[in-house]
TrEMBL record, chain A:
Membrane-protein topology: Multi-pass membrane protein
UniProt-recorded name of the protein: Calcium load-activated calcium channel
Record PANTHER family: CALCIUM LOAD-ACTIVATED CALCIUM CHANNEL (PTHR20917:SF0), PNAS-RELATED (PTHR20917)
Organism, scientific name: Stylosanthes scabra
Annotated compartments: Endoplasmic reticulum membrane
TrEMBL record, chain B:
Alphabetic keyword roster: Endoplasmic reticulum, Membrane, Transmembrane, Transmembrane helix
PANTHER family referenced in this protein's UniProt entry, alphabetically: GEL COMPLEX SUBUNIT OPTI (PTHR12906:SF0), PROTEIN C20ORF24 RAB5-INTERACTING PROTEIN (PTHR12906)
Location of this chain's protein in the cell: Endoplasmic reticulum membrane
Protein name: Rab5-interacting protein
Organism: Stylosanthes scabra
Amino acid sequence: MANPFSDFKYADGLTVVGISFCTAIVCEAISWILIYRTNSYKNLRSSIDKASKKLETMKTESNKINVKKSKTKKIDRVETSLKESSRDLSLFKFKSGGVVALVLFVVFGLLNSLFEGKVVAKLPFKPFGLVMKMSHRGLQGTDPTDCSMAFLYFLCSISIRTNLQKFLGFAPPRGASGGLFPMPDPKTS
Amino acid sequence: MKEGKSAKLNHQQQHQNGHLSPSKFAKLFDPEASWDKDQLGDVLHWIRQVIGLVCGLIWGAIPLVGGIWFILFLVLSTSFIYGYYAIVLKVDEEEFGGHGALLQEGLFASVTLFLLSWTLVYSLAHF
């Protein structure tokens, strides 16, 4: 039976996306078994959520009225407790995330061996700097719009895994995460 | 004091019920609805992802080529999100961590999703 995608010049791109998607599901399944279903994780997550909400309420109230020294101390205590819980959560995930890291390493190695030196997609823009280094990794020629497996895999990893974690409810709690570019949970990726 | 509080709670519940107990979908367009930080963050995240995916699919299909269209996507996506929470929902951004916190919800994931869909559709449809 003929491959329905064989007519596409850049069908390899679809293969990369497909493998990334399957890898994301496998990784989340492993993470669920090793991390998310454990009582330690649930308790830590719950304490972070509670501390975050409490901190928000306390900060909102302190903005509205003159703050007593004792209130400020209380806010500091809750903040410290939140940071400690977040740190414990990260450490817990780090210990269990080794298996997932191994899976990702193997998959990337497999993709690399399959698509090294191949142009898997065509970029609709001209990249530059670090993006160019990643998108043109291992490719011959000087066409900046040639896209290597590494860049496509990077895009797949971030977009698919972040949204899958969000959809399944495994995204890190807002109280523990932050920053301009929230990545998919690094301990499980 | 307790009676006063429960009366106030009843009144609020009645007000909500009197506001026709909005379904989850109706809540998305209801400026009277109250939002939890996590709820609003999740909604903004998913809206960003839909915008990223749809823009990527359309711009890859036309195709629209060039870095300027990436900038345009950023402007469009950010404007939409801002318009949604500031004008449609009329939330007080200070209660949710400020404009920065709301505008960055799902931003990076939507950018990568946009680039992925834009690149894939462009590659498959035009070569």
